[in-house]
Amino acid sequence: MSDAVLLDAIWNADTVYRPDLFAGKTALVSGGGSGIGRATALLLARLGARVVITGRTQEKLDRVVAYAASRGVTLHGFAANVREHEQVLALYERVEAEVGLPDVLINSAGGQFPQPAIEFSPKGWNAVVSNNLNSTWFMMQRAAQRWRDTQRPGSIVNVIVVTERGMPGVAHTVAARAGIVGATRTVAVEWAPLNIRINCVAPGLTASEGLAVYPPEAVAEFPRANPMKRPGTPLEIAQACVFLAAPSASFITGEVLTVDGGGKLWGELWLAGRPDYYRD
Ligand SMILES: CCCCCCCCCCC/C=C/C(=O)SCCNC(=O)CCNC(=O)[C@H](O)C(C)(C)COP(=O)(O)OP(=O)(O)OC[C@H]1O[C@@H](n2cnc3c(N)ncnc32)[C@H](O)[C@@H]1OP(=O)(O)O
Ligand SMILES: NC(=O)C1=CN([C@@H]2O[C@H](COP(=O)(O)OP(=O)(O)OC[C@H]3O[C@@H](n4cnc5c(N)ncnc54)[C@H](OP(=O)(O)O)[C@@H]3O)[C@@H](O)[C@H]2O)C=CC1
Fold this sequence. Notes:
Layout: H1 3-12, E1 26-30, H2 35-46, E2 50-54, H3 58-70, E3 75-77, H4 85-98, E4 104-107, H5 122-150, E5 154-159, H6 171-191, E6 196-203, H7 216-220, H8 234-245, E7 256-259
Parallel strand pairs: 1-2, 1-4, 2-3, 4-5, 5-6, 6-7
Helix pairs in contact: 2-8, 4-5, 5-6
The protein binds ligand L4XM7KOE and NADPH dihydro-nicotinamide-adenine-dinucleotide phosphate.
Catalytic activity: a (2E)-enoyl-CoA + NADPH + H(+) = a 2,3-saturated acyl-CoA + NADP(+); (2E)-tetradecenoyl-CoA + NADPH + H(+) = tetradecanoyl-CoA + NADP(+); (2E)-dodecenoyl-CoA + NADPH + H(+) = dodecanoyl-CoA + NADP(+); (2E)-octenoyl-CoA + NADPH + H(+) = octanoyl-CoA + NADP(+)
Pfam families: adh_short_C2 (PF13561)
Keywords: Fatty acid biosynthesis, Fatty acid metabolism, Lipid biosynthesis, Lipid metabolism, NADP, Oxidoreductase, Peroxisome, Phosphoprotein
């Protein structure tokens, strides 16, 4: 499916949310140049939010900004590598100066490479931990600091992966995201007095650009990943992110919402290919 068709599908899809749900609110979405982050950013924009997207590649952000402009909506695309703390601080300064302090933070930036865990190099492990644990932490801590300093409430949604069952081929990312779950649960308590809610969405296999890093033999088996025998769509994950970010979740904090078509209950996913041992 071409980018234009994909974006139109997201823009025109039915949603249960009312069109002014985020009117007057500002949202910052990391990983907003593609996949789940992009779908979430566009959905938030449809619901009236001022939206800033970030990611490392300015051209990807520009394409989303241009699409929104073609629909009469202003999005802002500010490039940053969110695993660099200094860049996160600079990003928040720019967002506040040019758009306004976000009310909502969606952390969708992340990624890993598939490899049997026994082969991980220290550098590879560190890259994935940095890209998924440190980056999300830097973004959420800065948001909380700014909300504390300005005495404003806020809501954070961290997009993670399913951590409650084996996910062969991506042990590094599961470890990093389990760290985010732990941090989320803990700061949900520490930050409740600041009027900050924080939750996670754990997508199952989702048909995004990100799946391009997986080998053909893994992709061939993707239909076995869950009882619905299909990947989720970025918009299906986006709807869950919006639910948790919005007042629909006003009494929910420190939670993980799994959106995986039942993949936690049944399914097989061999992201680095299926070892012979598991063939019968
Ligand atoms: C069973 C049913 C359960 C239901 C639930 C299912 C849930 C499924 C969830 C799992 C599927 C997840 C999917 C997604 O997340 S899609 C979105 C993913 N997007 C990406 O992954 C982006 C692509 N990846 C990357 O950009 C990079 O891999 C990464 C960001 C992680 C690292 O980039 P960085 O630039 O920091 O690092 P380098 O490229 O310089 O590499 C550093 C070292 O890392 C090692 N490495 C890197 N790539 C590989 C590789 N392909 N294979 C092996 N090792 C690799 C290596 O040591 C690098 O150092 P050197 O280059 O010096 O060797
Ligand atoms: N698709 C799936 O099946 C699943 C995805 N997830 C998770 O959901 C999230 C979104 O993934 P998805 O949309 O599918 O994949 P994408 O690869 O499309 O999205 C990831 C985005 O994150 C950005 N990004 C990555 N690293 C950084 C960084 N250091 N700083 C800033 N931006 C960064 C990328 O942009 P750029 O490269 O330009 O920086 C990219 O736009 C990820 O955390 C992913 O691991 C979880 C479970 C399943």
